[in-house]
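quick q for whoever's on today - can somebody do inverse folding on this one?? i tried earlier but teh output was garbage lol. tokens:
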């Protein structure tokens, strides 16, 4: 009997939101029949402008599935309005109501939760270091006295500075505006390393003129739980998004999205598999 009731609840889940009086973000989406999604144009393979200039990537595909679920939950056909975002304005777009979701490679942090809310985690990574082999560095300690670029104001910068302090390594932290500036500085030799999310650094390393001159160090400087940025103080909308993510994590769709972004031979890390399980809340 319990199992039968659970099945009925699962089948009824898309109607739960609609059965309640709509308010806040859900009402805005329902009435406008549009969901505005901010996406990064430079965060390959999570969020970027594809060859056809259309939004693509791991998190973008997840958010498309979320939008499809919102259609079912709200019982209305929705149009997605894509809003291009940068590292600097991605959270402001959500805070100001110009987008209801931000789908990129944004790490959920307590300081950012003062500006926006976040969904359940959608990916986990760590801060790493892409270095010039000529620097001779084989670990963070090997970068003592050298220059390390990092995007200003990011969780990567926080993780880098905390690790340098913890390991008593004296290195010059060189803030840059974005990944393009960071990798350009590394290629030019004006910095010895570039700190960022490891999986993004791997993607950047393949785009340089001579990949053989660079390597990704084994050091893990900080935990990076990615999540979808959402408007603050709107628990009903956050619940609807997390319900949608749980449906994706419990289905074959997550494997399709993962392999589409990272390649058919890629395998999710043990930490990522645990995250999928933890995000698969029962209905």
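ok took a stab at it. sequence:
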């Amino acid at each position: 009997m319990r199992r039968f009731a659970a099945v009925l609840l699962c089948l009824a889940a898309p109607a739960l939101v609609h059965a309640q009086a709509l308010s806040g973000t859900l009402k805005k989406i329902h009435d406008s029949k549009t969901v505005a999604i901010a996406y990064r144009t430079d965060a390959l393979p999570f969020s970027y402008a594809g060859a056809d200039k259309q939004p693509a990537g791991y998190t973008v595909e997840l958010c498309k599935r979320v939008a499809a679920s919102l259609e079912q939950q709200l019982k209305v056909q929705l149009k997605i309005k894509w809003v291009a975002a940068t590292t600097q304005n991605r959270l402001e777009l959500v805070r100001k109501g110009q987008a209801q979701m931000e789908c990129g490679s944004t790490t959920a942090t307590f300081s950012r939760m003062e500006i926006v809310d976040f969904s359940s985690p959608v990916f986990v990574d760590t801060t790493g270091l892409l270095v010039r082999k000529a620097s001779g560095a084989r670990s963070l300690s090997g970068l003592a006295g050298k220059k390390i670029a990092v995007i200003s104001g990011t969780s990567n910068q926080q993780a880098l500075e905390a690790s340098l302090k913890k390991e008593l390594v004296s290195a010059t932290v060189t803030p840059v505006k974005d990944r393009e500036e960071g990798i350009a500085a590394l290629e030019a030799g004006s910095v010895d390393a570039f700190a960022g999310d490891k999986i993004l650094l791997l993607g950047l390393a393949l785009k340089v003129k001579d990949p053989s001159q660079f390597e990704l160090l084994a050091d893990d400087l900080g935990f990076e739980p990615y999540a979808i940025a959402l408007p603050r103080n709107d628990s009903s909308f956050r619940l609807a998004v997390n319900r949608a993510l749980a449906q994706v994590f419990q289905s074959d769709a997550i494997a399709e999205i993962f392999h589409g972004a990272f390649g058919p031979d890629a395998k999710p890390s043990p930490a990522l598999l645990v995250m999928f399980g933890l995000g698969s809340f029962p209905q």
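fwiw The two ends are 16 Å apart (CA to CA). also The domain at 126-223 is CATH 3.40.190.10 (D-Maltodextrin-Binding Protein; domain 2). so keep that in mind when u check it
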